[in-house]
Amino acid sequence: MTARPGTVAVRSAWHAVPRPQVRRFTALAMAEAPALAQEILRQIRQEYPHLPVVLDDSGEPMALVGIRRAIEVFVQHLESAEGRPRVHPEVFQEFGRGEGLEGRSLDALQAIYRLGVRLAWRRFAEIGQRVDIPPPAMYELVDAGYEYLDGLVDQSVRGYAEAAARRAGERLRLQRRLMELLLSEHHRGDRADALAERAARVGWPLPEKVAVGVLLRPARESVAPAVGQGVLLDMDYERPRMVVPEPDAAGRPELLHRALGGWTGAIGPPVPLTDAAKSLRWAEAAVRLMERGLLPGGEVLHCTEHTEALVLLQPEELIDDLTLRCLAPLAQCGPSHARRLAETLLAWLETRGGAPEVAARLGVHPQTVRYRLRQIRELWGDEIDDPDRRFELELVLRARRLRGQLGDPGAHR
Fold it and tell me: Which residues of the chain have pLDDT under 70?
C-alpha cells in the first residue's frame, strides 16, 4: 500500500505481511476473480434490473469485463505494491456515458460501485482468513479498495459529463428545430403533425396559445435567464428568442418577471400556437422601437401594454405620408407656433370639450385656447368638422406625440 498524497508516511501493516502469505492471498484472489465478477454483476442486476446489457466485440457483457479487469488490476497491485493500481479507463468511462445517456444520476452509479466493493471485500476477507492475513493488514486493504474505487468513479464521472453534454447539445438541437418550425411563416406538408412530432422529441406539451419574446443581451457573454423548463429559449440568435407556452397561466407572468430581471426586450401578444410567427413579428417591432428610444428600455415589456405605439409607429411611410397631407395647413406657421397649434388641436380632439377643458389639459388660459381654436378653424375650414378628417388628424397627431414631436397631455407650457 502507498500513503495518500499530503499524508505522513506510516508503517504499512500490509507490507509487514510475509511475501509468501501475500503471494498465496493474491493467487487465490486472482483465481476467484472471474467467479467474483460474475457474482458482483448478478447482484448488481438484481438490485438494478433496468441496467442495459452492453456487449463487447466478443459478445461478453462489458460490465462483466470491466468488473473482472478492475479486480485483477487491484489484486496484482497487492503483490507488487508499486505506485497505485490503475485500471484501463475506457470501460469505466463507458459506464459513466451509459448512465448519462440513460438519464440516471451519478448517485445511482456510485451506489452500484459501492455494492461491488462490499461484495469484493467479503470475498477478500474470506481469503484473508484462509491464509492468516492479520486483521490490521486487512483493514488497510479495505482503505486501499475504497481509494481504488474513487479512481474508478473519477473515470465514470468523465464519461457521465461527456454524455450529459451530448444530451444537452442534442436537446438544444431538437429544441431549435422545433422553434424554427413554430416561428416559420410558411411550411410545406402537415404542419400540425410536424409540430407534434418535434415537440414530442423534446418532451414539450403542445399548448393552445403561445407568446414569443425577443431579448437584447445585457452583455456579450450573458448567462441564459432561468425562464423555466416549459419555456423554449434559443440563445444562439444575436437577439435571443423564447416561446412562452400559455403565457397567461397562473404564476407564469411572475416567473418571467423574476427570470428576466436585468434583461431588455419584448414579448409579443398571446396567439394560437400555429400563429407564433405573428407574435414574433410584434416582438421584433417593439424591440426596434426600443432601440430608437420610442418605447421604454431597461425591461422586458409586453406588446399588449403598448398597442397604440406599435400600431401608430410601425407603418412609418404610411403615417408620414398621411401626416404631410393632414397637417399641410400648419406649413403656413412657424415651427413653434405650429407645434402649439398641433398640441391644442390634439387636446381638443381627445377631450371633445370646450376651451376650459382643453385649457385644463394643456395648462394654459382658456382665452389662449379660444384664440388657437379660431386659428385652427381658419386653417382647416369646414374640414375640421368632418368625422373622417378628425380621425385622421388625431391619428397623425398621436403618432407625433409618441415620437416626442409633441408634448405630453397635461404638461404645462
Answer: 1-11, 52, 54, 56, 81-108, 163-165, 167-168, 186-190, 409-413
Paired sense of beta strands 264-267 and 300-302, if any: parallel
**What is the rounded CA–CA span in Å between residue 374 and residue 390?**
16
Through-space distance between the first and last CA atoms of the chain, rounded to whole angstroms: 91
Q: CA-based angle 95:99:103, to the nearest 5?
A: 170
C-beta separation of 327 from 375 below 8 A: no
Q: What is the pLDDT of residues 353-412, one digit of tens each?
A: 888 998 988 989 999 999 999 999 999 998 898 998 989 898 899 988 888 888 776 444
| CA-angle at 375, arms to 374 and 377, nearest 5° | 65
93/283 Cα distance (integer angstroms): 46
Q: Which residue has the cell 382643453?
A: 358
214 strand-pairing partners? 241, 266
Q: Contacts for 112-118 with beta carbons within 8 Å, 24 or more apart?
A: 112/44, 112/47, 112/48, 112/51, 113/149, 113/152, 113/153, 113/156, 114/149, 115/40, 115/43, 115/44, 115/47, 116/40, 116/44, 116/67, 117/145, 117/146, 117/149
Residue 368: CA count within 13 A, CB half-sphere: 15
Distance CA 46, CA 49 (A): 6
Do β-strands 271-272 and 209-216 pair in parallel, antiparallel, or remain unpaired?
antiparallel
Q: Residue 64: what residue type?
A: L
| Partners of residue 233 on adjacent β-strands | 242
pTM summary value: 0.57
- All three cell numbers of 121, joined, read 471485500
Q: Which tens digits make up the pLDDT trace of 257-312?
A: 888 988 999 999 999 998 999 999 999 999 999 998 889 888 999 999 998 888 88
CA distances to 42, 149, 249 from 234, in Å? 45, 40, 22
